[in-house]
Amino acid sequence: MRLGLLGFPEPDQLRLLAWAGQAQAGWPEWCGCDPHLADAWMIRGESVEVLGRDAVVIRHPHGGDERLALNRAEVDRPLAFATPLPEGFASAEFFESDDEKSVRQRLQRFEAWLRPLRSQFALGSLLVERMGQFKGGVIHVTHEGRLLAVIDLDRWQSGLFIPARPVDLAMAEWVRRPPGAADIPSSFIRLPLHRVMWTYAVRTLRDVLPARYRERTMYLRRVPRVPARWFDEVHLTLMRELMVRPAAFNDLCRRTGVAEKELAHHLASLYHAGGLTTDADSARRAEPAARRALVALHFDQADPNPEALLRTGHSDQSDPLVPPSSILREMPHSPLRTVAGKSAGPLVPDPG
After folding, report:
1. Alpha carbon of 113 to those of 37, 45, 67: distances in Å?
2. How confident is the model at residue 340 (pLDDT cuts 50, 70, 90)?
3. How much is the pLDDT for 307?
4. pLDDT tens digits, residue range 295-317?
5. Which of 138, 142, 172 is nearest to 158 (CA)?
């Protein structure tokens, strides 16, 4: 799981990440990441400035001038504030950042809140392992007589029983069913399989990039159909590079400067979400749609000519898309927003 730490000085971050990274049997392992991409947030209370009932500003990074605005009414993931909290600020979600037991208790609360995400991760892991057994069709995943998941490999859709636990999925039986059994019960959450696979591939510590993607020329088949804010800067760079010129693994490593391990990890998430291919003919047929989708990711950039976004490679440092970060930081639906300047007045909710 991915943990975002906001407003903490470096020694506190290192201590928290050391505690969070200690794997325990039956529980997920946490690692630090860009807060914009985190599954849960720990926020230093002393770095918080209260603007209203729900609006706060966080001084992040600690000691810097950058500040991030957060409206708690828009939050879409679990969070907790490290004590002491600002005067007049109330939150039931708090912990003591210098107490390992308090930190672990908070992480376990995060894990309970994130059970549906953890179950998606578990389902994605099992799909990677079993994909060779099922080339298509409908699969029912059952445990002790209860249906936990429906997987339609022909339509690339799935349904997941919301209370399902990762351990239940790990012990479940996979049964091939006729096409008429593809209906997803109304009580299940509907999940396109490319989202399930992305959820797994971006979080796993395993190397799940198929061997052929280290040996053969790879092409961008499509921009994975996941929310734009799920892409980090490396994903965007790799997609753009492959649209400019297809590449083998070692060539792409040289062109982008991304380390081999990190490159394999990011390529794996693009591949498992349907974004890559080694079939040149398939890529050629899909290129117009892939090009349009890639341009759409950069709609808020300064260059008014969208075709210019695809004419130059990573080595062109004058390119306005290096780094292509605004789509991650300033999208209207992002819970964290950068505060311009030092005045936070406009962020106070309008009482009218």
Report:
1. 17, 21, 27
2. low
3. 38
4. 887 653 333 333 333 333 333 33
5. 138
